[in-house]
Amino acid sequence: DIVVTQSPVSLAVALGERATINCKSSESVFYRPYNKNYLGWYQQRPGQPPKLLIYWASTRESGVPDRFSASGSGTDFTLTISSLQAEDVAVYYCQQYFSIPITFGQGTRLDI
Amino acid sequence: VQLVQSGAEVIEPGASVKVSCRTSGYTFDTYWIHWARQAPGDSLEYIGYIYPKSGDTKFGQKFQGRVALTSDTSISTAYMELSNLKSDDTSVYYCARADGDEYYFDSWGQGTLVTVSS
To answer: Cβ of A97 and B103 within 8 Å?
Structure first.
């Protein structure tokens, strides 16, 4: 199984400041024939299911604010929130879907 | 697109639970339905998927032999049945839609809390 590790486990950022979350996979999730990284990012607010933010490592889902961006390739990835808003308080997960079983990171709790 | 799951359950150890995931707003049998669970305060753990058009299924090794994934295309509903429940199966169980077997999840059900307790 591919192990996905996030850092930090928790993070506190002032309103309007930048938040950065890292994600590392134990194997590359880059599929060369399609030129895609099989890596997604999700936001989960308390009592709610996860919500897709980013797929293919850097493509923003429709309706997601452009303060959310992501980058990386192979085994190392980053999610950035450029200017933190109060509604961004949540747990963030990265997910590899390169191989079954699909696996998730342990989550990063983001607070103000 | 909507995925609506069945309500919370309290199940005795050793018994089985069957969770439903009723979908609407898209062509049910052309998307994969994946299942994952989340223990209280924990991350997400993958269970497996079903492709309703073919009935093809695949599971994480941990759940092999203990989980059954089925679907009823006439009512656009997927089901997950987990047997021989133990206390550490207490979790919120989610269904999610994806456009492939190895693919991101673009819509999720609201979750079903399954509590295993005598």
So the answer is: yes
